[in-house]
Design brief:
With 289 residues, the chain is α/β, with parallel strands linked by helices. The chain is built from 11 helices and 5 strands; from the N terminus they run αβααβααααβαββααα.
Length: 289
Amino acid sequence: MSTNRYRVLLLSVLLGVAWLPEAGAQVPAQSACHNAAASRTAIYFVNGVTTTRDEARLNGGKLELEFLSKLPTMAPAVQAMCHLFFLNINPTSGAVKDFLEAGQQRLGLTSTTFWQGLEGAGLATSGVIAQVLQRPISNANQIDDETIQRHATAFREQIASPTCRRVLVVPHSQGNLYSNASYNRLLGQAPTPPTGTVKIVGVATPADVVQGNGLYRTSSTDLLISGIRLVLRTTLPANTNWGISPLLLSPAYSGGHSFIGYLTAEPSRTQILTDMEFSLIALASVNPC
């Protein structure tokens, strides 16, 4: 069995579901997609730190599955749109580089300041933070401007004629920092897209804002974001949790930080989907072309 196939099977067992990407998810079809006149919305997943391309695809598939499962109960304006799912990759370069990059992005901190602050706060204990702190710290990596531009360009191409699609971005972890930067890049370059054609729904965000007055969910049981918040006090506060979930005890769920965990445990799962619904209702009122 290949490594990737094993990972998919392992995650499926941990989640307690029978969903496998190659098997196809049994969810209601989008009737609006059969209507050529129906408006289209592009929904992008943006992965976080240390996420491989295969893992990002798995996370994006989980997002699509959960959204389409709930779509029949969403507002009529949302059901009337055809929703197309895409992946905007935030390339991974390994745990140390990714976390240092996130640290520099967030308020312009150097790697030394960022990780010494975490260590000074008594967070060098266990899990992913300890794993990173136990490794050599190099100079801070530069923000990946190429990735920011690539994401902004993808959004612009969706919005512009003849595609004329609205855009909803659902980033996880460091993906929130890239999505905020891409949003600013998109609105800062001519031609400026119509106001309100892009919305962000953040998940497990280390940022202090969601651009475009977007919504977000960060769990009080997310050890990584809680640790960052101790050092960077302006980090957005926790506003959801994973309840009493066995997922929190599994290393596969990264100390309450994994995207699949957020979309499996309650109430975070329902709240994220509701945030997406509210954002799509707002998008439905905007004409991108």
